[in-house]
Amino acid sequence: MNINNDQFNEGLLKFIDASPTPFHAVATMQAALLKAGFQELKETTAWGTLEAGGYFLTRNASSIIAFFLPENVNLAETGMHMVGAHTDSPCLKVKPQPEKVSQTLWQLGVEVYGGALLNPWFDRDLSMAGRVSFLDSKGALKHALIDFEQAVAVIPSLAIHLDREVNQNRSINPQLHLPPVLMQVEEGENTDFRALLEQQLRQQQPELDAGRVLDYEISLYDTQPSALTGLNQDFISAARLDNLLSCYCGLQALLASDHQRPMLLVCTDHEEVGSCSTSGAQGTFLQAVLQRLASGSEAEHRMLQNSLLISADNAHGIHPNYADRHDELHGPILNRGPVIKTNANQRYATNSESSAYFRYLCELADVPVQDFVVRSDMACGSTIGPITATRLGIKTLDIGVPTFAMHSIREMAGSRDAWFLFQVLSKFFSQL
Prior knowledge:
Layout: H1 5-17, H2 22-35, E1 39-40, E2 53-59, E3 63-69, H3 75-78, E4 81-86, E5 91-102, E6 105-113, E7 126-136, E8 141-147, H4 174-177, E9 181-184, H5 193-204, E10 210-222, E11 227-229, E12 235-238, H6 241-256, E13 263-268, H7 285-293, H8 297-305, E14 308-312, E15 315-316, E16 339-341, H9 352-365, E17 370-372, H10 384-392, E18 395-400, E19 402-404, E20 411-414, H11 417-430
Helix pairs in contact: 6-11, 9-11
């Protein structure tokens, strides 16, 4: 890929803005893969013997696997170099029966998805996006993506005059305090959310012939575009950096590799809620694909033992205002390269062999590398790394780009770190 850091970041920001939900992220990745000549496979059809080339498939339209097979490959002998990430981010999701009118204001009931940092959701210009299931004029059940694109909702804060202790002790009740305001209504005015979705579908995609909406998965998101920030544009400020940044870096590394060895990218949904779903890392998606690529159980076992998975998920950069929340010797700094994440209690899948190999890759790519270990008196989060390692028995390591404000509505990373991660993942995919 003949581009520089600035061009890479431009593409990253466009990808994030085009991907307000996991469904949109997968659709955006699909388009890039098709443009690069990858062929789409379906889980419901027979694959036969796949020729050399690139392929991809999706599950639930929110998880995606893309892989490349070179000529005359024996996967049992070569194994596969794999990169894993996740497509979901903490957010607010609209409930099935969300309609609520209070004080002449139409609001929506929402549910908190994942470990969201809730305070930053107040007083933001919010829009809605997701997947809608509907009947067309012929009575056929269809599904489509929807995005309102413009600001259509807000969760207003309570004025400080009515809560004088708010800056000392603010607690949020998700049931009572998070329903967003959509519009002001008169008595008897229609407040049917499904009818609103039907109207939006017809306006945005008239070719769908959309009729009655039966169900939906709709999330709220911040309409503020992603941006380079700081006096010297040292930073990226954006929603969903965790973990769309890793998805984008993995995808671009896959497309930019020399395609001389077997390689695979897996981006799954529902990591933020434990990965326990058909399209999550605890599901069968990756395992089923690998089984179909291997010719028998013995070949599959050999392939897995000759493979390596890099689980790429953002790391906690050392915050200048809260430096005491880090182990002083393991505080990753923004713009100093990707971070190897280690935990003695196996919350990360890294071991000395996999971490040593990643350090070696960073040397080959001329990329700096850092370490993160959580403070010994604090709990440690986890990733798809340990889940995938346990399910498949594949050697795995956990790495990521240092980030501030993880799980906020708007996160912050270094403007050079995504480029660093792309470079080392490209080297990984090209390493024989």
